[in-house]
């Protein structure tokens, strides 16, 4: 167990962990995915978990892990047996972007994350002055993590734009991971 081949597509539920700094919009994204209704959220202490189904009929257990500074030390505890990571960035908060990038790098360097596909969601795209996807791609340098499939997508948890498309992108990342893991068997 614990090899890439154990992360098979036939798995009944893919385990997806969603991380990011506090106030990046993780819980709002989760509530949009669950009900497409706006929900007033407060900072997550610990985690929220929800079962979802992608448009391709893939069942997901989506773990929304709190992003407050004092909670990030426990992030490593959520990474074992992870099939995919969603990392949420506040694309309008340029001052915290270096902190977010450092945390993303820590997560991706965790032994449990080897080969795990990553969907980076640039949230709050509707806000004036938010960084574009091309600006973020240059700053994030995700190419340095060439041992995995990854995708950068823009979205707005506030108005829902890009959320469903992000779920489709996640399903594709999981499918590509399955193809890669089958080649290793």
Short description:
With 185 residues, this protein is an alpha/beta fold. Helices cover 28% and strands 21% of the residues.
Describe this structure in words.
By secondary structure, the chain is α/β, with parallel strands linked by helices. The chain has a single domain, classed as Rossmann fold (3-Layer(aba) Sandwich). It contains four helices and six strands; from the N terminus they run βαβββαβαβα. The chain has a six-stranded mixed beta sheet with strand order 2-3-1-4-5-6, sandwiched between helices. Strand 4, helix 2 and strand 5 form a beta-alpha-beta unit. The longest helix is centred in the last third of the chain and has 22 residues.
SSE topology:
Layout: E1 13-19, H1 26-35, E2 47-53, E3 59-65, E4 84-90, H2 97-108, E5 118-123, H3 133-140, E6 150-154, H4 163-184
Parallel strand pairs: 1-3, 1-4, 4-5, 5-6
Antiparallel strand pairs: 2-3
Pfam family, one: Arf
InterPro entries: P-loop_NTPase, Small_GTP-bd, Small_GTPase_ARF, Small_GTPase_ARF/SAR
Binding site for Mg(2+): 27, 44
**Which superfamily, in CATH terms, is the homologous superfamily?**
P-loop containing nucleotide triphosphate hydrolases
Instruction: State the major sheet.
Output: 6 strands, mixed
Average residue pLDDT: 82
Indicate the CATH topology: Rossmann fold
- Rounded to an integer, what's the Rg over CA atoms? 15 Å
Number of helices: 4
Number of separate structural domains: 1
The rounded distance between the terminal residues' Cα atoms is 12 Å
Judged by helices, strands and strand pairing, the structural class is: alpha/beta
CATH class: Alpha Beta
Helix fraction, binned, reads 25-40%
Low-confidence stretches: 1-11
Strand order of the largest sheet: 2-3-1-4-5-6
Q: Looking at the structure, what is the overall shape? A: globular
Strand content: 15-25%
Looking at the overall shape, the CATH architecture is 3-Layer(aba) Sandwich
Strands, count: 6
SSE succession: EHEEEHEHEH
